[in-house]
Design a protein that fits this description.
The strands form 2 sheets. This protein has a 3-stranded antiparallel sheet. It has a two-stranded antiparallel ribbon with strand order 2-3. The longest helix is centred in the C-terminal third of the chain and has 36 residues, at 355-390. The chain has helices at 2-10, 12-33, 41-50, 55-63, 79-94, 96-103, 106-137, 154-181, 186-196, 199-208, 213-234, 271-287, 295-304, 310-331, 334-343, 355-390, 400-423; strands at residues 237-244, 247-249, 252-254, 258-264, 346-347. It is mostly helical and 431 residues long. 69% of the residues lie in helices and 5% in strands.
């Protein structure tokens, strides 16, 4: 693989793309450490060392590469864009106009992308206002004795909202630049950069804590095993054969080819984990505004907000399984696939075109999503349970969602580099 990377850098066009992508990643990481105007950076560092964020803020902080709790220019990270993309996908089921745009092809996709950008900016304004309000009231860093925003005048707060929103817009633009001029999917690579940037420091903190080298080796072994499982499952496919009938167009014969529909075991990716984590974090966020002495606040803190609680683990697994089926049903439409096959003369051997094909695809998707959802729940929970047993904490950034994103983005990027090497008559990564 190292030799393949050397050959990639020896190819002038590919070398320019790789260097451009790396340069954008460096700019992204620089903005994650640049403080927002009006924020006292020394006070923020003091509060970060004294407190820990709740689960919901921890998710956003994970996808921002630790920039959220630093209150930097890129503090919101790529999360507003992810949320906007998911909302637009869900609205396709509710709003017929969005579904029509999706079926129009490139022109419709361009309009949906534009709507996603507008919604991203709107969500950035809302999220930046919320984060600043939490920081100003002291709920962002509970128990911290210093003020992270010394001057809370409306002018300073407005500038902070504008700066964080502009940072989100800049991140969105940087991701699109990588997609157009670099290698791989820009948004995915920025998420990859955010998560991977925190690995070395957190692994070092485990090695320097109680247990030292023993716990470090145990955590490293768990990560390697989970990564191997993720690579094996993410590369697995159920291939449904499709045969295209021959047809005459003028004097030429078309069709007669055989292909297949690749169906991944985990078609929903990391989205169910994000949904489940966000939903379970809401009760804990609500409990922060109640009296800590009240019974319902203590019950939520003990059973729902506590990641090592059996009730929390059970609900987390059930929500992941539910959202796996829910998101797969939204993103994969058997009726649409069946209609497209029928339009171009395709059929599954042994299955009649039309409604029987749609029912067969729905049957296969339902069957294959069952092990996929269990696999996703297993990957999400095994690191958490193992880290609780080892007593190294549950807020470290290499849980199931982190590993899924890093491995998935890494595999996809390697495939794109390999395809470009093969186009230039070089050997790929796999000989």
């Amino acid at each position: 693989m190292l030799g393949a990377f050397v050959r990639a850098f020896r190819t002038p066009d590919l070398r320019r793309k790789l260097l451009f992508t790396i340069g954008i990643m460096v700019v992204f990481r620089f903005g994650s450490f640049l403080p927002t105007p009006g924020v006292s950076y020394p006070n923020v560092q003091t509060c970060v060392s004294q407190t820990k964020a709740n689960d919901l803020l921890g998710i956003v902080n994970l996808f921002s590469g630790g920039a959220l709790l630093q209150l930097s220019v890129f503090s919101l990270g790529i999360m507003p864009y992810i949320t906007a993309s998911i909302i637009i996908q869900l609205l396709r089921v509710v709003i017929p106009k969005f579904e029509e745009l999706h079926q129009e092809g490139q022109s419709g996709t361009t309009k949906l992308t534009q709507y996603t950008r507008y919604l991203t900016i709107g969500l950035a304004v809302l999220q930046s206002t919320t984060i600043i309000a939490l920081a100003r009231s002291g709920n962002l860093f509970q128990g911290c004795s210093v003020d992270v925003i010394p001057n809370s005048s409306w002018m300073v707060l407005t500038i902070m909202v504008i700066t964080m929103t502009a940072g989100t817009g800049l991140i969105m633009w940087l991701g699109e630049l990588i997609t157009e001029r670099g290698v791989g999917n820009g948004m995915s690579l920025l998420i990859f950069t955010s998560i991977a940037a925190r690995f070395p420091s957190n692994m070092w903190s485990i090695a320097g804590g109680d247990g030292g080298a023993g716990k470090f080796i145990a955590v490293l072994a768990i990560i390697i095993v989970v990564i191997g499982l993720v690579v094996f499952v993410e590369q697995s496919q159920r291939r449904i054969p499709v045969q295209y009938a021959k047809r005459m167009v003028g004097r030429r014969m078309y069709g007669g080819s055989s292909t297949y529909i690749p169906i991944k075991i985990n078609m929903s990716g990391v989205i169910p984990i994000i949904f489940a984590s966000s939903l379970l974090a809401v009760p804990g966020l609500i409990a922060q505004f109640g009296n800590p002495q009240q019974g319902w606040v203590q019950w939520i803190s003990r059973y729902l907000a506590n990641q090592s609680s059996p009730l929390h683990i059970t609900l987390y697994a059930l929500l992941i399984i539910f959202f796996c089926y829910f998101y797969t049903a939204i993103t994969f439409n058997p009726d649409e696939v069946s209609d497209n096959m029928k339009k171009y003369g395709g059929f599954i051997p042994g299955i009649r075109a039309g409604r029987p094909t749609s029912e067969y695809l729905d049957y296969v998707i339902t069957r294959i999503t069952a092990p996929g959802s269990l696999y996703l729940a297993f990957v999400a929970l095994v690191p958490t349970i193992a880290f609780v047993v080892l007593k190294v904490g549950t807020n470290i950034p290499f849980g199931g969602s982190s590993i899924l994103i890093i491995v998935g983005v890494g595999l996809e990027t390697v495939k794109q580099i390999q395809s470009q090497l093969e186009q230039r008559h070089y050997e790929g990564f796999l000989r």
